[in-house]
Amino acid sequence: MSKFTKRLYRTLAKFVFPNSLRISFLRKAGVRIGKNVYIAEGLTLACDLGMEHHLDIQDRVSIAPNVIIIVTSDPNNSKLREFKNKYSFIEIKGKVTIKHDAWIGAGAIILPNVTIGEFAVVGAGSIITKDVPMFTVVAGVPAKVIKNIETE
Question: What is the CATH number of the domain that holds 47?
Answer without folding.
Answer: 2.160.10.10
